[in-house]
Amino acid sequence: MIFTIARKELKTLFASPLAWMLLALMQLVLAWIFLWRLDAFLEIQSQLLQIANPPGVTEIIVAPLFAMAAVVLLMATPLLTMRLIAEERRNHTMTFLISAPISMTDIVLGKFIGLMIFFCSVIVLAAVLSLSLLAGGTLDVGLLLSNAAGLLLICACFASLGLYISCLTAQPAIAAAGTLGALLGLWVVDIAADDADSIMRSFSLLKHYENFNRGMIDTFDLAYFALFILTFLVLAIRRLDGERLRG
Amino acid sequence: MNEQITSATISARGLCRNFGNHAAVREINLELKRGEVLGLLGPNGAGKTTTMRMLTGNLAPSAGSVEICGIDLLDRPRDAKARIGYLPETPPLYRDLTVDEYLQLAARLHRVGNANLRFVLDEAKQRCGLNDVGRQLIGSLSKGYQQRVGIAQAIIHNPDVIILDEPTVGLDPNQIREIRTLIRELGAERSVILSTHILPEVESVCDRVQIMHQGRMVFNDSIAGLKQKQISLEEVFAQLTLDNGSSGDIQFS
Question: Domain of A87?
Fold first, then answer.
């Protein structure tokens, strides 16, 4: 049932031009950053040779690419999550899902997985962009995988938060504004957490992502992401269940 | 299965629903047998839609219970919901999907196996006269066709109980006649609850009529019984629902 909903989400998503436009624009931005980093690498390549144990092509090109990809996806997420529940409500199609013999958990997880499959395509495109470097040298595959895993997890965090906010309203625009506000807020927390070893550091999404970006997979980061995703998915399910009671 | 044919397919007891301090539905009892079409009447705001939303599991009742074919809707919602087909007031359609895609989705969500999918899809389209528009986007269809798609999604999984909330609103006279024929056909082997404002529709389609007013059930009789007593439905309706508030209170005081 979860996959039936996920399939329906993908079908309606790709039936609209929004998904294609977002994919194209994101790829354009990522390609731009990729070329800029590649240019920078070629410029400093001769100097790098003089250093003992120099940073490789993966650290100089791929890691910044994925760091930027997280910010690009942060901006794109509200446009994708706003439709999830809010639009179903506005089009009166929520009744269709609730009347079917499926639970709220199925609906929420189905929508979440559908969106994650879309995000996966973005991540795969970014990874393919990085793999094109294999044409001219070798890659640190471990670092690339850690980046991809980190990006997948942070996307899941964005998606679960957006999904929850979409549950709160029947207006897609308000859901988008709310999600953007919340995600930007988390980003600002990241900037505030920059200087000190403050507690803010533990709450910042991007700070946890940074470790993946450096190729370090820490259980603390994994736990943080897992808790973040779980919290907002459970909140979304509870919110929808509560609606049946409150009316 | 033979037992089920004689026993009630849907039975609601003491159904109540409050929105804050406002009681939208109070102490509704409803029972329906297989092969029976029930017309649910009432002025706007009488609580018909709220009742239907409770019967289909879209809204939790404040008190009371609903059983679908002997399965409690609150205890085992998934098994109970699998036996209901529901067309809400506004047909719940995805405008970006084609008719076929949408009906397939409806069938899958109602646990129709892949082997049967093609068959149930063709049958539902056949019944609702949608054979020519299978590949069209729902958003591009006329209101009448959209309404038919809405009915098709309610019957595609062969439910025991079909609940239709004002299915003929916005249709032209020919379409209304077609839909009424369809409802009668469906009512022959299943239970149908029909909410409407058109009194002749109830007289021509339904076996039994219940009238709601201010959240209470104020009338319950069979159409045949009404005809026997030579009372017109319109008179009954006007009598029970025109005098604001007093009739319901008298009944319960």
Answer: 2-246
Query: What is the value of ipTM here, to two decimals?
Result: 0.86
Output the pLDDT for position B159. 92
Q: What CATH topology corresponds to B1-83+161-246?
A: Rossmann fold (3.40.50)
A138 touches chain B (CB under 8 A): no
Please judge whether B101 and A99 are an interchain contact, meaning their C-beta atoms are less than 8 angstroms apart: no
Largest interatomic CA distance in chain B:
57
Is it the case that residue B6 has pLDDT exceeding 60?
no
Q: How many residues does chain B have?
A: 253
Q: Name which of B82, B88, B96 is nearest A101 (Cβ-Cβ).
A: B82
User: Which residues are paired to B38 by β-bridges?
Assistant: B193, B208
- For the entire predicted model, the pTM comes to 0.90
Å between B92 CA and nearest CA of chain A: 4
The pLDDT tens digits of the residues spanning B190-237 come to 899 999 888 888 888 899 999 998 888 888 888 888 888 888 888 888
Q: Which amino acid is at A175?
A: A
**Which residues of chain A have a pLDDT value below 50?**
none
If pLDDT is split at 50, 70 and 90, which confidence band does B1 have? Answer: very low
Q: Chain A residue closest to B24 (CA)?
A: A247
Contact indicator for B159, B55 with CB cutoff of 8 Å: no
Q: DSSP for B112-181?
A: --HHHHHHHHHHHHHHHT-GGGTTSBGGGS-HHHHHHHHHHHHHTT--SEEEEESTTTT--HHHHHHHHH
Whether the predicted pLDDT of B4 surpasses 60: no
Number of separate domains in chain A: 1
List chain A residues with CB under 8 Å of B80. 101
A49 at interface of B, judged by CB pairs closer than 8 A: no
B153: chain A residues, CB-CB within 8 Å: 96
